[in-house]
Design brief:
By secondary structure, the protein is mainly alpha-helical. Among the domains are: 30 residues, no CATH class; 72 residues, Crossover junction endonuclease EME1, DNA-binding domain (DNA polymerase, domain 1, Orthogonal Bundle). Helices cover 49% and strands 8% of the residues. It has a two-stranded antiparallel ribbon. Strand 1 and strand 2 form a beta hairpin. It is elongated, with a radius of gyration of 26 Å. The relative contact order is 0.08.
Length: 146
């Protein structure tokens, strides 16, 4: 399969060489633009962990090497006396980046909490920013400054 960027380069080069414009057929475009659906369950598990703020690809891979499935991580959390410290000393080796107790707790909360806290906005950001809201009622528009 030809990569999309390579196909565009080749079309441009051939068009310039021949002095005319070549275009891809829809079928050819669809084939080279198709997403590669060869993600494994492991890859998806790594990507899911990376959705948690503070979990880098390296940290996610380290977690997945020790806990290859969501079920295995949850079983370990359930068996741990202090789940937030379960992942703290997980990463060993030359380039190890340890997971902090805070991040371990965040990962635990992410997967076990049924209610997530509201996103917090610093008070300074709220007081320094002025928001203008247009309120439409019938034929009149009231502008309210918050």
């Amino acid at each position: 399969m030809v990569e999309r960027t390579k196909a565009v380069e080749v079309l441009k080069e051939v068009s310039e060489r021949d002095g005319c414009q070549y275009r891809l057929t829809f079928d050819a475009y669809q084939e080279i633009s198709a997403k590669n659906a060869s993600n494994s369950v492991r890859d998806l598990w790594v990507r899911q962990l990376m959705c948690i703020r503070g979990v880098s690809q390296f940290k996610a891979v380290q977690i997945v090497e020790r806990y290859p499935t969501f079920s295995s991580l949850m079983a370990a959390f359930n068996a741990a006396s202090c789940p937030s410290t379960l992942l703290v000393n997980l990463n060993q080796g030359e380039n190890a980046k340890n997971i902090s107790k805070l991040l371990g707790g965040k990962i635990y909360e992410f997967f076990t909490s049924s209610v997530y806290p509201e996103a917090s906005v610093p008070a300074k950001a709220v007081t320094s920013a002025k928001t203008t809201v247009a309120k439409v009622q019938a034929d009149t528009i009231d502008v309210i400054e918050l």
